[in-house]
Amino acid sequence: MKANEIQNLFNSFESIAIDYDGVECWSARELAPVMGYVQWRNFQSIIEKAKESASNAGESISNHFADVSKMIGLAKGAHRQVDDVMLTRYACYLVAQNGDPRKAEIAFAQNYFAVQTRRAELVHQRLLDYERVQARAKLAETEHTLSGVLYERGVDAKGFAIIRTKGDRALFGLDTALMKRRVGAPEKRPLADFLSTIAIKAKDLAAEMTSVNVQQKDLHGQVAIEWEHIDNNSAVRNMLLNRGIRPEALPPEEDVKKVERRLKADEKKIFPKKKK
Fold first, then answer.
1. Which one, of 204, 231, 207, 226, lies nearest residue 153 by Cα?
2. CB-based contacts of 146: which residues, under 8 Å, 6+ apart?
3. Nearest by Cα to 33 from 19, 50, 16, 20
4. Has residue 49 got a pLDDT over 70?
5. How are the residues of the chain apportioned to helix, strand and coil, as percentages rounded to the nearest 5?
6. CB neighbours of 221 closer than 8 A, spacing ≥ 6?
7. pLDDT tens-digit profile of 58-95?
8. Beta carbons within 8 Å of 150's beta carbon, 6+ residues apart
9. Residues near 25 by beta carbon (within 8 Å), at least 6 away in sequence
10. Which residues contact 175 (CB under 8 A, 6 or more apart)?
11. Do the Cβ atoms of 28 and 84 come closer than 8 Å?
12. Segment 200-210, tens digit of pLDDT
């Protein structure tokens, strides 16, 4: 396929994309001729196969294929209402995958939508990574604040470490060392660096609660604060269990430090510093 043909097809696909309820979509009626289908009924059969593919992949058909109606122009200014389907990028990709690969338009569409769908997946993963890095930074900030509050109330660094370990035991049902082995965390690294986002946020919530309650209840000394932290972690654990989430059973995650370095490296590639 020549460069000008590729550019023309690219422009054709881009020009008919629309915003449908806040989601970028394509009208199947408009997409059909761009994909080389003259007969609507032939294109309909491809859409049905695409729906089946989506269902087999565990996707909700209604999230990607929206049945709508539209008016089309006829001779002498007349109009007729016809059925149409609004297709997401993913739906378009599946339509292309189920189309006739001998058509140049289908071959182009398969690659065009594959790249775009993959791009969306990468953006989604980056957002998840960013959220986890932010959650870990927030936990570090909360624990730093909590350690300051506890120091003013007679708890030193060693005592704070003991309190935090007992909090982990209450939250996960396992002590910190066992949880580290479960998630594959090195002995000298923080457990939170290898936890899932929700587990990190659970630890953060419990630590926030302890920080607030220690001050409101005017608690002093390691023993009283230790029990407060255990109670708060137990409360968070019970909340998770009531929603069907066992924090100790959540799968381990990649070292958050590596994730953070990868995000920063990507940013440098996208936004390189200008030379002075």
1. 226
2. 160, 207, 210, 211
3. 16
4. yes
5. 70, 10, 20
6. 153, 154, 155
7. 999 999 999 998 766 665 666 677 889 999 989 999 99
8. 159, 160, 163, 214, 225
9. 17, 18, 19, 66, 86, 87, 88
10. 165, 168, 169
11. yes
12. 999 999 999 99
Tally of residues, the chain: 276
The three-state secondary structure class of 19 is strand
Query: In 10 A of CB 14, how many CB atoms?
Result: 9
- What pTM does this model have? 0.66
The tokens for 80 are 């007729």
Side chain identity at residue 157, one-letter code: A
Q: Which backbone phi and psi does 78 adopt, to 5 degrees?
A: -75, 165
Residue type, 113: F
- Report the amino acid identity of residue 134: Q
What are residue 18's DSSP bridge partners? Answer: 25
Question: 184: which 2 tokens?
Answer: 């594959």
Residues ≥6 apart with Cβ < 8 Å to 207: 139, 142, 143, 146, 167, 229, 232
Rounded Cα gap, residues 96 and 195, in angstroms = 39
Which region, left, alpha or beta, applies to residue 69 given φ > 0 means left and ψ of -120 to 50 means alpha? beta
